[in-house]
Specification:
By secondary structure, the protein is an alpha+beta fold. Helices cover about 35% and strands about 20% of the residues. The protein has 13 helices and 23 strands. The strands form seven sheets. It has a seven-stranded mixed sheet with strand order 17-18-16-15-21-22-23, with helices on both faces. Strand 4 (about 50-55) and strand 5 form a beta hairpin. The radius of gyration is 22 Å and the shape is globular. It starts with 15 loop residues before the first strand and ends with a helix.
Length: about 500
């Protein structure tokens, strides 16, 4: 059955959806109810991913091992009888990844992740206007995006074309190397208004559109290649939907799918975002990015490199057992220690490099719980910066929903975020918000958070407000110090 360009009306009520979640730390396959995108108990398979970090800023993943591990997840679900009754296949994927390909479509490089810092300085026309570029593409001319990644890759290998992880997974499953408007927007090479590749971005990258995956409409569907019929017979003829970028999927999956609500997602990294119609979108501030959800919607927000990875690093360094992985005995906002969570640097447009994390105010009275509390408070204050910008952009105090693995794992962090935001929050009851959101985008569902409703405690809010000016001053100093050190070491 060939792919179709027509609208898909979704599966009949009561059927099930197979969701593939292409993360940085794991690849997952899980089965969801088609009624409300809730997970089917026990129908989850996971393949752990270990990115390789090297000198010179490399942060890569073995592409072959990743894809084979993902397919192994489907084998596990098949073995356990979970691939019967599947009526749709959806994908949520990490944004920003890239692979250089040869003339036969073979990979010349590992999967380059968002954390990789290698790139080259672009050759720009004197008339280049980065603010106009940012307004049009939602991105900056930063090494995170393809206009700077591709020239670097072309200087390293004889590449003929380029694709991201979800594009290559779709090709492996269906035989068609295509991408969605959502994934394409994460390359920093999309004209957000038209949904097509941006001519100036491609000129900077030095490629033509035919060297990138074709962008298909949100209503496109493909089907599994015939070679998989014996391996997963229940999936034969099941429509495969275009992938959704994980940030957009996480927003929708946690219940933040219109401009009244900001979704805060805490996974390996963190973000705060608002989904809104692409038509008549508010003018994009320089500090925020904007990508696409689908043909009709965009998502505007701010991302942060330190979140769940920060918590995992610190609990490992401090050798905290499971009973001490939350600072439950530390009152929120009370720690004298202030942590600036720049261990993984900052996202654009700031230019703080990785390895810039700072603790201020340490004394011999502080213990592991104080350091952990300070780190979680620092991450919360970073996220709050983005939330307040979004409040201003959309002209209201936004409602907030919390979601993601970090949120699910830490009651203390949920309370800390709620106090930092100084407003009530709703918690998404489902940890797999990306997979849930991908199903919701593809099938037109509107999930609700379904979890606890938190109200900020007045004493905690007051302590955070007293902490905030000190944090802001010390953050500014940390940024200046990191930039000065970079100039010193590079000069």
């Amino acid at each position: 059955m060939p792919p179709t360009d027509g609208p898909y009306d979704g599966p009949p009520a009561g059927d099930r959806v197979l969701a593939l979640d292409l993360g940085t730390s794991s690849a997952r396959a899980l089965v969801l109810s088609a009624d409300d995108a809730s997970p089917v108990p026990g129908a989850l398979a996971r393949h752990k991913i270990a990115p390789t970090y090297g000198t010179g800023g490399s942060a890569t993943i073995d592409l072959h091992a990743y894809v084979e591990g993902l397919l192994g997840c489907l084998d596990e679900l098949q073995h356990n009888g979970h691939l019967d009754g599947i009526t749709a296949i959806v994908l949520s994927s990490q944004w920003h990844s890239i692979v250089a390909l040869d003339n036969d479509g073979g990979a010349l490089t590992p999967l380059i992740t968002w954390a990789d810092t290698r790139s080259v300085e672009p050759r720009l026309d004197p008339a280049f206007d980065e603010h106009a570029f940012h307004a049009r593409t939602g991105a900056w001319l930063h090494r995170l995006y393809w206009p700077r990644r591709i020239p670097w890759l072309l200087s390293e290998v004889s590449a003929v074309s380029f694709a991201g992880l979800p594009d290559l997974v779709i090709e492996r499953l269906t035989g068609d190397r295509v991408t969605s408007v959502s994934i394409a927007s994460g390359t920093g090479s999309l004209d957000l208004a038209t949904g097509e590749y941006d001519a100036e971005a491609l000129a900077i990258a030095g490629v033509k559109p035919d060297r990138l995956p074709a962008i298909v409409p949100s209503g496109w569907t493909g089907v599994l290649a015939a070679s998989y019929a014996r391996r997963w017979p229940g999936l034969v003829g099941v429509p495969v939907h275009p992938p959704t970028g994980d940030g957009a999927a996480s927003n929708v999956g946690s219940g933040g799918y219109d401009e009244s609500t900001a979704a805060v997602t805490v996974g390996t990294s963190a973000a705060v975002r608002v989904v809104h119609p692409i038509d008549q979108a508010p003018e994009l501030p320089w500090e925020l990015w904007r990508y696409r959800v689908d043909d009709q919607r965009a998502v505007t927000g701010m991302a942060f490199s330190a979140a769940g990875n920060l918590h995992a690093w610190l609990t490992n360094v401090l050798q905290l057992d499971e009973a001490h992985q939350e600072p439950t005995d530390v009152e929120i906002g009370s720690s004298r220690v202030i942590a600036i969570p720049f261990q993984a640097g900052t996202r654009p447009p700031e230019t703080v490099p990785g390895g810039s994390g700072v603790y201020f105010g340490l004394s011999f009275d502080d213990d592991a719980a104080d350091l952990l509390a300070a780190s979680l408070q620092g991450a919360s204050l970073e996220i709050d910066r983005g939330l307040r910008m979004l409040d201003t952009l959309f002209g209201r105090e936004l409602e907030v929903v919390l979601g993601g693995g970090g949120i699910d794992a830490s009651a203390w962090w949920r309370r800390c975020l709620t106090a930092t935001f100084a407003r009530p929050t709703d918690v998404c009851a489902e940890a797999e918000v990306g997979a849930r959101g991908a199903a919701a985008v593809a099938l037109g569902l509107a999930p609700v958070p379904g979890g606890e409703h938190l109200k900020p405690a007045a004493p905690e809010v007051e302590r955070i407000e007293l902490l905030r000016p000190r944090y802001t001053i010390l953050r500014d100093l940390a940024v200046q110090a990191a930039q000065e050190l970079t100039r010193y070491t590079s000069g």
